[in-house]
Design goal:
With about 350 residues, the chain is of the alpha/beta class. It has twelve helices and ten strands. The termini are far apart. About 5% of the residues have low confidence.
Length: about 350
Amino acid sequence: MKPKNHIKGRGAQEKIHNRFSENHYEIRDDFLNYCLKEGESIDKYRTTFIETFPKTIVNKVTSPDVGMLYSLNPYQGCEHGCVYCYARNSHEYWGYGAGLDFESKILVKKNAPELLEKKLKHKNWKAYPISLSGNTDCYQPVEKKLEITRKLLEIFLKYRHPVGIITKNALIQRDLDILSELARHNLVSVFLSITSLKEETRRILEPRTASIKKRLETLEMLNASGIPTNVMMAPIIPSINSHEILPMVKEISKRGAKSVGYTIVRLNGAIGSIFTKWLENTLPDRKDKILHQIMECHSGNLNDSEFGRRMSGSGTIAKQIHQLFELARKKYLPNPEKIILNCDMHDAYKDGQMRLF
């Protein structure tokens, strides 16, 4: 049972001061109680959406171990509220905190489709897969209303440009028509994030994401529609979902996944204190055990920033997790398919229509 002070529907359990800001504010309960009439209440953590106007939208990824060269994020911040999310730290560069701000103050880039089209039409641009999204989920809840991601996919299809998608939201089913057409030209692949088969774990770890049932249904539907789909079991958190590796790979193999990957949780920057507070409020009896096992995966620390090692971990527990994955792959996904997207069509569509030869 979760303690009474657990903030329902949120991953982070507190506001975190932005390390780049000299000043910060907080909403004091005694002030609210003084101002409100009896019986009134206020949602201190209601989600707000803030429109931004970037000048560019495609980002070059310099990290050598993330498996992508370019990314595009139509949203900054993510209402999914996954407590472990590495992207939380990036919210500080926008002037907000990595805790509750990250999941309740969402920056929206409504001009993303226009900026993408400008990029793809540029005479010097050479086609290379662009990932939606490398930072926050392009299918987070507000996408249902704004449809920015759908408009981006229409641009990718118009210019016959390859695109990869990373999501944990079943809303991607809405765009099966565009995705199927992209797949027909080998221009799309999807990485579906599924971290657990247990709904109870999903609810506390990723409070505003699609249910496990809906994600497995989405995996099956995408593959049945000819859209190559991989699964990322990321992150693996010792003593929370590490025991689910074998049953997870078995389940996704039955639903057509082409491959499976994983990362081991690392609590970099402000995420260490956010995750620790979440454990205190959510799993207090297991807090010390979980933190100690995470530290064992990173040479005694909650985080390891060394490229090539930071996401795979080191030490006995990390080695056991790696061995379990190798066993699961050998047993349930012995012939993984490496997906190489088509980068050869784009030049003929740069002006929006195929050149006449």
